[in-house]
Amino acid sequence: MIIINFLVNNSDVIILGIIASILTILLQTVVKVVSNLITYILTLRWSLRRLFSFVNKEDIYVISGSIDEETNKGIALLMGPDASAAANLYQTIEDIYSNSKVKHIYSTTNQSIYIDENIVSVGGPVHNVCTENLMKHLKSIVFFDENDALNYKGQIHSKSEEIDEDYGLIIRMINPFATTRKALIIAGCGSHGVLAASILFNKTKKFRDVQKDFKKKFGFFNNLLNKNFIAIVKCRMIGNDVSDITFIDTITIQ
């Protein structure tokens, strides 16, 4: 009876105490979630900025390939995985380099406009003149042959429809046409290879796993010094998407 009387006489206080406890727990949960989210966003931005290695406030050009067929605008744009890769890269760069002017143009544009700027060239040399001109400076190390096969360190990698497999190429280098700027090439044997290569630089769910694999292959000191590099990726093709992205080799370059 004593306990019941106590509860009856102090019911308002007890209820308020329970409500306060619940609110405290909810507040702690919200603060933890928000804190983790802010930490994730900040570390993600930092990781991506190191990967791109562009200087803030400088112009950045995302260069997409185009095919030869004429349209009413003079060019026919690539579709599918190539287009997804370029669009995602453009959006990511805009987000993390908010003080830079980011422009998305096509390789049929007069090269004098962008060739001595910071460049992200998306797509292989067949449909992207910018990629073709940049890769000429590395032809002793890596190149695409007439069959779109990737030749690298004496090995040949090519897209296979039979086993749904494609290969991508990432090159981060000093822009050979303007040594104070950077050039990033995102290419592939096929368009799925391009998309797979772009995942390392995109804010997607796959980014963390891909970045982890890249760091493992690239090595501790190369990551620490943030050296320029060539990397080859392999992926599984699923419709217009990719999965099982793995780095099969990375090397440092000047």
UniProtKB/TrEMBL annotation:
Keyword annotations of the record: Membrane, Transmembrane, Transmembrane helix
Domain of life, source organism: Archaea
Transmembrane segments: 14-42, 183-201
Protein name: S-layer protein C-terminal domain-containing protein
